[in-house]
Design a protein that fits this description.
The complex is a heterodimer of chains A (101) and B (473). Chain A is built from three helices and no strands. Chain B has one domain. In chain B, strands 1-2 form a two-stranded antiparallel sheet. Classes of the chains: A mainly alpha (101), B mainly alpha (473).
Chain lengths: 101, 473
């Protein structure tokens, strides 16, 4: 039994669910940011698998764009976390409650 | 391939870079705002000169037709008004004015690209160029509320784009292409209409785009971000970011998922009904005017989605027209709020008491815009609602239009409550509210637009019809 498209898609779906769980359940803003990166990696796996099995390079090009944009997003996210930490001395997302969530 | 087709975006990007460079050498920072506004004439001129073309470039990824050109001009006008109204606000981040204007222009570049791509990778990159710029702008004040709003916006926005990407991955995997037109052919050729995976992909796309336009249940970021962000940025978010989201949705759903129209029209109808009801009901309880306008913009997104649910050319042209009316109205309201809150340093509705005696013209403008948001004639908001409701009825969505009309009545309550506080409340002090010439110019332009569109809407309506007619092949 070889590894087929389904296996990659199941791996991707599981990873995506783990990432989503992390976003919803974790309190630390940095960990939430990491969970978002897991979700994006899940998407990347699905894209590359589809690309491989449909003999089209587009999916891999898409993955490169996703990685670049994700890096930019993480940079801005960490900058905002630092800005908050300087004022509040905490990165606990539940403490960011000046306005109701 | 014709690089001239990309000239509005290239010139706008160049303008942003010029502003950053000038910021290094210039001492008189207020000039940067002048440079930004005057420089916008160049991309606007290119856009107007391109009007009438219908071509594609970059292997079909970039499409220049009247639909995209209409939105480009729309974004340029909006950003010009936002920059003009920022002059009274910019003292709060005096040292970073250059970056502020440059990032505003970059966000606009992203939105212009969003309106003119026909390919999933480009849509994603344009969406993120807009998104990341807006995260930065939201956290720009660096005080407690602003940075909290920026981080919340970023985290929720990043989750939304991950969901959107998963939807794009499914659509790409099933059809083997990222070009919207080819997706449409693949769907009908391979009989994917009944495929559950495609339906999953569509639902994820709706979720991802729904975040951008603040549709329920993806609206939770709106009140916090609107309250915490600098007020000009809130105005920009509520108008331009929403319009860009609708432009992309129109493109994707009409061009790629056109054959699957029965499925997604109904999804949008249900979301529209819930969105406008939630937005209006929660808005009643708000005491902060920026937060109230945040919920009001959620409700307006619900009305706008009637145009999507109608899934017809009448629906999309009514949607485009509604966007223009909403832009003038909401910008006008926020510009008046910038001037008033600058003086009283508060966004509480109670503090606006008796404002009509301290700032008669500002109050008149704010009242006009609130009346237009409520949809009372002779304002733009009335005409916009009239057209979008009749488009809904044409498509047989009578139940949705009835819900929308009930909502309009609920909404009138909280809009007119603010007008009552302004005109009938006792003034808290006798001090006048000052405002700069640039802000007054932007405010009068917005108010003139509100009145003009309410009394003589035909010209803009015709342009909106031309723009919308580009969508169906």
């Amino acid at each position: 039994m070889g590894v087929g498209l389904e296996h990659f898609l199941i791996l991707s779906a599981v990873l995506f669910a783990i990432g989503l769980y992390g976003v919803l359940a974790k309190k630390n803003a940095v960990v939430i940011l990491m969970s978002i990166e897991i979700m994006l990696s899940a998407v990347n796996i699905a894209m590359v698998a589809f690309s491989r099995y449909s003999q089209s390079i587009t999916g891999q090009v898409f993955v490169i764009f996703i990685m670049v944009v994700a890096a930019a997003e993480a940079a801005v996210g960490l900058a905002l976390i630092i800005a908050i930490y300087r004022r509040r001395k905490t990165v606990d997302a539940e403490k960011f409650d000046l306005m109701k969530w | 391939m014709n690089i001239y087709l990309l000239s509005p975006e290239i010139s706008l990007l160049a303008l942003a870079l010029v502003v950053i460079l000038l910021d290094l050498f210039m001492d008189r920072k207020w000039l940067l705002g002048v440079v930004s506004v005057v420089g916008l004439i160049v991309p606007a001129a290119f856009t107007v000169a391109l009007w009438g073309t219908n071509q594609t470039a970059f292997g079909g990824a970039l499409v220049v037709d009247q639909f995209s050109l209409f939105f480009k001009l729309f974004f340029l006008v909006v950003v010009a008004l936002v920059i003009l109204s920022s002059t009274d606000y910019a003292h709060k981040f005096a040292a970073f004015r250059g970056e502020y204007y440059a990032i505003l222009l970059l966000a606009t570049t992203g939105m212009m690209l969003m309106a003119s791509t026909r390919e999933l990778i480009s849509i994603y990159v344009a969406l993120e160029l807009t998104g990341i710029s807006l995260y930065v702008l939201t956290g720009f004040l660096k005080d407690d509320k602003s940075s909290e709003a920026g981080l919340k916006y970023l985290l929720l926005g990043a989750v939304a784009s991950a969901v959107l990407l998963y939807g794009m991955a499914l659509v790409f995997g099933l059809t083997g292409t990222t070009h919207l037109r080819e997706i449409a052919t693949a769907i009908s050729a391979e009989g994917l209409l009944s495929s559950p995976a495609l339906l999953m992909g569509i639902v994820l796309l709706v979720a991802g785009f729904g975040f951008k336009i603040a549709a329920v249940p993806f609206q939770m970021w709106v009140p916090d971000v609107y309250e915490g962000a600098p007020t000009p940025v809130t105005a920009y978010l509520s108008v331009a970011s929403k319009a860009a989201g609708f432009a992309v949705i129109l493109r994707v759903f009409y061009e790629a998922l056109g054959p699957a129209s029965l499925d997604w029209g109904m999804i949008f109808a249900v979301i529209a009904a819930i969105t406008m009801t939630v937005g209006n009901v929660v808005a009643i309880a708000q005491s902060n005017i920026k937060r109230m306008l945040g919920y009001s913009s959620i409700a307006q997104a619900g009305y706008l989605m009637i145009g999507l649910a109608a899934a017809s050319t009448t629906g999309s042209s009514a949607l485009v027209f509604f966007l223009v009316c909403y832009a003038f109205t909401n910008l006008g309201a926020f510009i008046a709020i910038i001037a008033i809150s600058n003086k009283i340093d508060s966004d509480q509705i109670a503090d606006y008491s008796g404002m009509a005696r301290r700032a008669p013209l500002l109050s008149l403008a704010l009242a006009l815009c609130l009346i237009s948001l409520a949809g009372i004639p002779p304002t733009a908001g009335f005409m916009a609602k009239l057209y979008i409701f009749s488009a809904g009825i044409d498509s047989g969505l009578v139940w949705l239009v009835i819900i929308a009309v009930i909502n309009t009545v609920i909404a009138a309550y909280y809009y007119l409550r603010v007008v009552r506080v302004i005109y009938l409340g006792a003034p808290l002090s006798e001090e006048r509210v000052p405002s700069s010439g640039a802000l007054r110019a932007a405010l009068s332009f917005a108010c003139l637009g509100v009145l003009a569109l309410g009394i003589y809407p035909w010209m803009v309506l015709r342009i909106a019809e031309v723009a919308a007619s580009m969508l169906l092949p």
